[in-house]
Amino acid sequence: SAAAPVATALAAGTTAPAAAPAPSPARWADAVRLERWDEAEVQLDALPEADRQRPEMRYVRGRVALERGDAARTVELFTGLEKELPLLVDDIVRRRAEAASVAGPFAEAAAFFGKSRSLSDQHRAALALEKDGQLAQARTTLDRALAGAGRSRRKSDEAKLRAARARIAEAQGLLPITIADLRWLAVEAAGLPEGEAGAVALDRLKQSLAPKDQLARALALVRAGQAEAAVPILDELEKKKTVPHLDVLHARAEAKLKARDYPEAEKAFRVLSTLPGPRKVEAMYQSANALARGGQADEAIKRWLDLSSRFKKNSWAERSLYQAARWLLLRGRYDEAAPLYTRYLALFPKGAYREDAEYEQALAQLSASQPKVAQKTLSRLAKAAKKPDEAQKLRELEGLAAFRAGDRDEAVRIWTEVARTFPLSFAALAARSRLAAAGAPLPPLIEPAAARPANPLDLDLPDPARMLVSIGLDAEAEGRLLPFEREAAARFAGREAEALCGMYGKLAHARRRYRVGVAQVGMPQLLRAPGEADRWAWECLYPRPYLDEVQKLEGEHEVPRGLVHSLMRQESAFDQEALSPVFAVGLLQLMPKTAEKAAAEVGMSFDPSRLKSPHVNLRLGSYYIGKLLKTFRKTPVLAVAAYNAGPKAVGQWMRPGVDAEADLWVARIPYDETRNYVARVLGNLARYQWMEGGDAAVAPLALEVPVDVEVPPDAY
């Protein structure tokens, strides 16, 4: 982590009482940096009084109080502070207003936020007015904000505004407005906290949604990843029969499928497949899909083949034929899968799955008795690939096909070329392992660095950013540096990218540093080992934020060094505020339910509002990847796949007797997202390992993948 000049200055010349020695300033700064707010409060309050009264220390203590929910303390500490700390005057004024909107003076907070046009600020202004007893003005503020809410792409903004207006309107006795907003929340914001609170409030007021709105709410919950909550609503609608029966049955079956209750989903779709209607064939397809996901793939294949024979050119028949071939491939029935792909390609020459079918057919042929045919297809697909990494993965498999066809020299030539062309990628690692297994010479892991002496830049941060880093507020420091980028880099003509990467490297927060690297560092700089003069480029593209904490957690949970950062790079691009469409959160993109279970297992209290905190996210994410590694016998390929797709899905793709060496197993992963994810994370890992210890630190890719692992029923 970055040096802490303010903390160092505090340590100089201070002597704490013997009974209560002052803690190391580095500890409180690191606690702030990792957002361990309770620990930071204790550490800061233990400092000598003279140190606590310094302006920068009052600022950081106020920030800690605000994060801990002690708004009154923040108001106290920030009052008049802008005069003593002019570097942060705008921030101090704003955060004091944030605290005042909670603890008062409310009129002051309302006046401050009322000047802004942002929806979140209008919301704060209304809350302050509400607490000040000015309900009519608060509602007027919310009315005005909601009139412009349509321009916001975030439904959560409108949900907060409507929740506040419903509460205020109820306090004013304006029940029609209250009920209208609560109904909107229950349906349109289903899955968000405000939406669920709205549904509860409707029950309290003895109001109910119309049946069609109940159905819409259930479908919204399914889309929001809360299918379990949708099922009781749909069960009740099915009993009452107040909306079209088929619509309810389809929604219920979909909810069961999304909730991973596969036996019930199969039963629900099977019932639907016996009823007349436009979605009959879809229900037949989905009943087989539920069977396959529930572990009865052989029966699912039979049903898909029957459907494809009965309905010919129907789009669901196309999908069924393709899925039957894919699951035969996954089950290791290669001699059956290959001709089924041929049939699909003949019946649907412009089909939706044509590209996938050609690729998977080659995999089936490679593992059956047709490696020479597979080689031709893989060569053609590699030449047509639009991305270099995709081309190299296909080329590595082409080499395997050549080897199995008896052409060892051609295989060695291809693998050597792949290993040299895109070093430290998944394809290159696989090619090297294949060369080693074939007893062939290995090319250099990566071409050696160019011999250029380093000429270090004399870098410094602008004053506000430097001060914020010194007190552990690196994320805020990043925001302060952003407006100065052009000016700061202008002093280093010709080396602007290096200068920016170096300046952002002084922060523990790596979001902007990585983005600068992506924009400024070209692929040629990654094709040879970095030397003293250009190591900055690798460090910019492969940063290691919170390094001490990450390495401590990797050691604690027996995770290979560098794997947590490799996951972080792929999951969130080092953005702790990242929130995915399915509500995965933070640096390691944890699903709240996964995080809650992990927290229970490590004995940690769980607060979903703190899941973005680096301390919480890193601790739970590191534990979880460690747990997956234990489940899958320390095999990174399997554990990384499970981190993305879930351990039960990975369990479905493992079967004794399949052709399951690492490169082939990854190639057969049925989800493009997961297949590419595994390759990228393992490529990240190789580069992180190289940066730490050079060639010797890069672990070879183990070709052997255990396929007899039993995934426990309670795996998550």
Automatic annotation (TrEMBL):
Membership in a protein family: Belongs to the transglycosylase Slt family.
Domain Transglycosylase SLT: 551-655
Full protein name: Transglycosylase SLT domain-containing protein
Superkingdom assignment: Bacteria
